[in-house]
Amino acid sequence: MPVDHYENFPVASLLLPARLREPVEAIYDFARSADDIADEGDASAVMRLARLNDYRNALHATERGDPVADPSLAPMFARLGKAIRAFDLPVQLFRDLLDAFSQDVGKTRYADFPELLDYCRRSANPVGRLLLHLYAAASPDNLQLSDRICTSLQLINFWQDVALDWHKQRIYIPQDDLARFAITESDIAATVCDQRWRDLLDFEVQRARTMMLEGAPLARRLPGRVGWELRLVVAGGLRILDRIEAADFDVFRQRPTLGKADWARIVWRALWQEKKQ
Asked: In 3-state terms, what secondary structure has residue 66?
């Protein structure tokens, strides 16, 4: 699976049991459309925040069992409400996503890694937690492993998208890491890929890889198709990190993505995880 756009989300592929595809797609549509409000188009910050507040109001109405007043949102939230009720999904997780998307509208720098992790806690981790609730596998241990995977996927997206985020006036690399490796914002603007930059991005890549590998055992805990879906997600994220390294950490001139040739490696890695069970 490509780790892009609403990057932390496993699309409801044929690997998922049929009964889970509809609720997964309902969650995905909510998350992706809300994320687009924060990131896409040329709307003002005020307009973006107002529209995200419309989502909050619609979510609140859905939680109460009331009709959604906004006709443009009613179909999506009717679908989402059905999933929430059928699987007893925690509504707070949807609020966390909206909070993170709202933060993206105004916050463009992160002082340190803990501050970035707090953002990931709301922008990425709710997705994995919602999926575990769908799978009836939301044990405390599983939730912790899921958080590691989802945060890693978010970080991977940040590292592959440094150039794209710069054009949106955002830098997700923690400011104290930039200072530690003597990288300035002028360096990023000038797409400087020298040894300082390679050392910095190597540090961030290894941090994301460690986190992904810490969470990877979750894929072996989940049974059947669900486990296979997650194995492919983990393998895809790790492959993106491989691609960043193969590009000698020059994410300015070519965004590392997955191509057809990568899929054989991804499937092999997923099979290897299966054999480790």
From this structure: coil
Q: Are 32 and 5 in contact (CB under 8 A)?
A: yes
- Dihedral in degrees, nearest 10, Cα atoms 119, 122, 125, 128: -150
∠ at Cα 160 (157, 165), nearest 5°? Answer: 80
**pLDDT, position 112:** 98
Answer yes or no: are the C-beta atoms of 162 and 193 closer than 8 Å. Answer: no
Query: The dihedral of CA 52, 115, 25, 81: what is its sign?
Result: negative
Residue whose pair of structure tokens reads 């069970």 in the numeric block = 277
- How far from 166 is each of 39, 161, 264, CA to CA, in Å? 13, 8, 32
Q: Is the dihedral of CA 14, 18, 22, 27 positive or negative?
A: negative
Entry pTM: 0.90
Reported as a single tens digit per residue, the pLDDT across 146-189 is 999 999 999 999 999 999 999 999 999 999 999 999 999 999 99
| Integer Cα distance of 146 and 126 in angstroms | 9
CATH architecture assigned to 108-277:
Orthogonal Bundle (1.10)
What whole-number distance in Å separates Cα of residue 18 and Cα of residue 50?
Answer: 36
- For the chain, the structural domain boundaries read 18-106, 108-277
Contacts 24+ apart (CB under 8 A), 199-202: 200/173, 201/159, 201/162, 201/244, 201/249, 201/251, 202/245, 202/249
209 touches 241 (CB < 8 A): yes
Give the single-character DSSP code of 68.
P
* Distance, CA of 246 to CA of 160 (rounded, Å): 12
CA–CA separation, 103 and 40 (whole Å) = 15
